[in-house]
Design brief:
197 residues, alpha+beta, Immunoglobulin-like, six-stranded mixed β-sheet, four-stranded antiparallel β-sheet, Reeler_sf
C-alpha cells in the first residue's frame, strides 16, 4: 500500500506542476515577422547562381500558372547612356501583397547602368555588396494590391560602355498576406539586352 501511495505521488507531481505553470503563448507570429520582413536582406534575383525568393517561400512551383511578371519599357536593344522608364507588374490570382528584387549586370557580374526613382516605394537591398545594386520594394512598396496586381516604376540609365551585353534578373513574390512563408507564388525572369550598333 505504501508503494502504491509513493507511485501515485510521483505520477501526480508533473500534473500538479503543469497546472501551476503559467500559460505559454505561441511565438509563431514573432517568428513569421522575423522570417518574412517587409524588405529583403540578401541576394535573391535568380541570376548568376543566386537563389530566388522561393528559397524561403517554397510552397509552390516557380512561375505558377494564374499569374505573371512583366517589365514594361525594357528595350530589345539599349542605347548607351540613355534613360529608360521601366515598370514592373506582378499579377496573380492569390496576390494580396507583393515584392521584388532585380539587378542589371554585365556578363562578368559587375553593375550595368544606374537606377533612380521617385517616392518611397523602392530601395536598394541592404547587406549585399556595394559593387552591384539590388533594386527592390521598400516596406511602403508592399502595400495591398488592387485587382490582384501591384507595380513599381523606376528609371534605368543604360551603361556608357560600348558593345557590352546587359543581363536583367528579377524575382518577385506574390504574397497572400498571411505573414508566413506558405501560400505565396514566386516568379522569376532573365532578359539579355544587346547594345544598339
Amino acid at each position: 500500500m505504501k508503494i502504491l501511495l509513493k507511485l501515485l505521488g510521483i505520477v501526480s507531481i508533473p500534473f500538479i506542476v503543469g497546472l501551476s505553470m503559467p500559460e505559454v503563448k505561441s511565438n509563431h507570429s514573432l517568428i513569421s515577422k522575423v522570417e518574412n520582413p517587409d524588405h529583403l536582406d540578401g541576394a535573391f534575383t535568380g541570376g548568376f547562381g543566386e537563389e530566388t525568393c522561393r528559397s524561403c517561400h517554397f510552397d509552390y512551383d516557380l512561375n505558377m500558372d494564374g499569374g505573371s511578371l512583366t517589365m514594361d519599357g525594357v528595350p530589345e536593344t539599349y542605347e548607351a547612356g540613355k534613360d529608360y522608364e521601366i515598370t514592373i507588374k506582378l499579377k496573380a490570382e492569390q496576390l494580396e501583397v507583393g515584392g521584388f528584387q532585380m539587378t542589371t549586370r554585365f556578363e562578368d557580374g559587375s553593375q550595368a547602368g544606374e537606377f533612380s526613382w521617385e517616392g518611397n516605394d523602392l530601395m536598394f537591398t541592404p547587406s549585399v555588396s556595394d559593387e552591384v545594386k539590388y533594386l527592390q520594394h521598400s516596406a511602403s512598396g508592399t502595400q495591398k494590391a488592387e485587382d490582384r496586381t501591384i507595380q513599381w516604376s523606376f528609371t534605368w540609365k543604360a551603361p556608357e560602355q560600348d558593345g557590352e551585353k546587359v543581363i536583367l534578373n528579377i524575382a518577385a513574390n506574390s504574397g497572400n498576406y498571411d505573414d508566413s512563408s506558405f501560400g505565396d507564388w514566386i516568379y522569376a525572369d532573365e532578359t539579355t539586352l544587346e547594345q544598339d550598333n
